[in-house]
Specification:
single chain, 210 residues, alpha+beta, four-stranded mixed sheet, two-stranded antiparallel ribbon, 8 helices, 11% strand
Amino acid sequence: MENKLIEIKKYIYRSAVGFENKIKYGKNGPEFGELIYINPQEHDTYLSFKHRSFSGRILEGDWDLQAQQGIEKNIIYQACIEHWEYDVPWEETGIYDFMINKIEKFGGFVDGCGNLKDVIIRYEKLDNLFQVIKSSRTFKTQKELNPKSFNENGGLLFHIGRDGKPIFGGGGMHRFSMAKILKLRNIPAQIGVIHPDAIEVWKKHKGLGI
């Protein structure tokens, strides 16, 4: 019963984001978890500063001017490159140690993993996903994967800066790495936060042309 109440509260919150934006910006106002399409080959940096729970929010300030990190310095991205491009076993990339350290640091579960066995199973599943995407050359949307998903919530996370251009938010780094490695150019993503200066561009293109 408690879990059901939590899900209801999440649904109400997510629906309210889109409702508030449409009241303020019109029918094309952004929604929580809205689906956009991006070209991962155009992105080599990321700005990890807001969780996907802020999806669809209009955020003022100079957050989009902050220095972005190069993805080549991200340990997850490094491990993915080593494993999927150079056939280095996962355990030799350092990613297992990285995950176990996070589990011990934060307690409980991290990305659904609570111990080494869980981590190994997770990376076996990622290997399977990589092969599926390599074969199909496409990414499925979150709705295609799970019809109960709220829009594209759970997909790759991309914020929209004041210039109307997408900024990788770091969410979905494994899948982003797959797309980079496989040189895919048009894949689904979840909208993160949007700078108010970009809202007119958003309304005009409804995110798809950004």
